[in-house]
Amino acid sequence: MGILEVKGVNKRFGGLQALGDVNLSVKENTVHAIIGPNGAGKSTLLNCLVGKLIPDTGSVMFDGQSVLGRKPHEINQMGISRVFQTPEIFGDLTVLENVLIPCFAKRDGSFRMHAFETVSAEKEVVAQAMHMLEDVNMAEKKDMHASSLSRGDKRRLEMAMCLVQEPKLLLLDEPTAGMARADTNNTIELLKEIKASRDITMAIIEHDMHVVFSLADRITVLAQGTPLVEDIPEKIKGHPKVQEAYLGQSHG
Amino acid sequence: MLGLSAKDTRFLLIVIFLTLATPLLLQPFPEGSAMAQFNAGYPDLMQKFAIYGIFAIGFNILFGLTGYLSFGHAAFLGVGSYTVVWMYKLLGYNVLPGLVLAIIISALFALLIGFISLRRSGIYFSILTLAFAQMSYNLAYSVLTPITNGETGLQVYGNDPQILVGANSPTSPHLFGLVMRDSVQLDVGGWLFTFNIGYYFCAVIAILAFYLSLRIFRSPFGMMLRAIKTNQTRMNYTGLNTRPYTLAAFVISGMYAGLAGGLLASMDPLAGAERMQWTASGEVVLMTILGGAGTLMGPVLGAGFIKYFENIFSKINDNVLHAWFAVLPDGLENAVVAMIHPFVGKGWHLTLGILFMLVVIFLPGGLVEGGQRIARLFNRKKKSKGPGTGAGGHKPKPAPHVAE
């Protein structure tokens, strides 16, 4: 029984069957990659997991509870954090404040009227955030405007914001999309570090095979909204069905 | 002190000093001199500085922090005024019950309007709040005449119950016998200083309001509000529900507006529907942007600027101009007066408009940013004179602090 169990999920946009009978099981403390060509339904599937979309049929169970019908912030409070394709950070805030916010969200829940406390007086929370920034080598940038960071640092910061919440499941939506090779390698290194240094379950949606094969413990291949195969990376590499999905198939 | 950092405490003390010394500071020219009309140290105007300062501080908690631009805050101003006048009519001229009730009622009103308007963001939110405010204004003018006394405006009449009024109670607004319109005048060698009870009452409340807003700015709650302005998507995916945060900010700023409206009626026991009109809502937006949205001092500065222009510039008429330029030859005098004429007197809006445009174009951070730039210029000069400059020069640029 995995920490995330997707069973028989269907999603239709008008005449387009975006997801057709998707089954997926993500085991605890593994890195599970979901790959597939453009339009395979990867993003739709991810959006069904985080509460942005509701599947037409099927169930999505996380840690024994259904996530369907819950809002994104409720799902995050259950323990799912999400990294976006382009880093979503608080550009007008400092780097430290960016990490403080998830710390407060974790401690105080989705809303608390803490208008008479002072941020700097919350020593424990600040220490926790600083510790996280040290982990990703950004401590000396704590007073910088987040919007003035480099693209790679923004990615690091977003990762730190997710990790500081100690999520049970970290979802990554094409974390290297649009990156140069050097940046991609840095991201892979960062993710490897994260994987090595803590017990964490990750689900990665990815296009780039290089990323997937360097990180994943298990891979699901999605094509036209349906999972083709699910297996360990070594077996996926030479799988005829996968090559067919990626390279296309000549009909007749 | 008071849960503030050393820097903020110093900042607060400066604000307290400036507020309490306003009757002296705004009276720089001796009475009877040609410049005396630029003096702003008379009670009516000083009260307006403090009251509209409170209004703008509250508005800034919503607009400056969360970025939600409300075009209907004058509705709360009106609600506050009507509440206070009703308390005069029912209980008596003590301002305290009215002010407390004004805050409560405007909070309820803000809760209702905010709950509905905050379902949308951006321009749609602005339009919704504007619609609510105009509805309130028109209702106050027409259907709600039994409560608001329509066009005449609400005021106290001889046959009102005023159940708490004793034989020797004051017959104008007061706080436990301290009559708001009473003043002490001090004549020091030509300078005339007026210390008005009403002003000091407003000033003390304004300081409290400022202190509260300072605490909110420094709190995790304030940080959340700034985060909402920057990236709502990230807020949601960080497990935070943005709706109650924005609603809380809306209600708090509505309470500030209600308090300000109540104080207007505490200084002058009248309440009219025009206080709710959209121009009044627009004015507080101008104040906040002119001074610097999202900064602590900006809205107060903006409020002071606009009220100063409205009251001082509007008084400069052609006769005054002729008196100033009497030394010039006649033809030139008339030409100069004709040139300045459109910008003063009834044309003060033109000056204010130009000033507003200049600020928005060249100082997007408002007057506060202007002040900061000047301060930085001085600091740089000081530093370049000092020894050892340039050593260890490469430091990441720190984010501008929200204070100042």
Provide structural commentary:
The complex is a heterodimer of chains A (252) and B (404). Chain A folds into 2 domains: 1-79 and 167-252, P-loop containing nucleotide triphosphate hydrolases (Rossmann fold); 94-166, no CATH class. Chain A is an alpha/beta fold. Chain A is 37% helix and 24% strand. The mean pLDDT of chain A is 89. The relative contact order of chain A is 0.18. The longest helix of chain A is centred in the last third of the chain and has 17 residues, at 181-197. In chain A, the strands form 2 sheets. In chain A, strands 6-7-8-3-9-10 form a 6-stranded mixed beta sheet, sandwiched between helices. In chain A, strands 2-1-4-5 form a 4-stranded antiparallel beta sheet, with helices on one face. Chain B has helices at 6-20, 22-25, 43-66, 74-90, 95-117, 122-141, 145-148, 197-218, 220-230, 232-236, 242-267, 278-291, 298-311, 318-324, 330-340, 348-362, 366-385; strands at residues 154-155, 174-175, 178-179, 183-188, 191-196, 270-271. In chain B, the strands form 3 sheets. Chain B has a two-stranded antiparallel sheet. A two-stranded antiparallel sheet of chain B has the order 2-3. A two-stranded antiparallel ribbon of chain B has the order 4-5. The longest helix of chain B has 26 residues, at 242-267. Chain B starts with 5 loop residues before the first helix and ends in a 19-residue tail after the last helix. Chain A binds chain B through residues 50, 71-74, 76-77, 81-82, 84, 88-94, 97, 100-102, 104-106, 108-122, 140-141, 143-145, 148, 161, 165, and chain B through 3-5, 215-216, 218-224, 226-227, 229-231, 233-242, 244-245, 248, 252, 396-399.
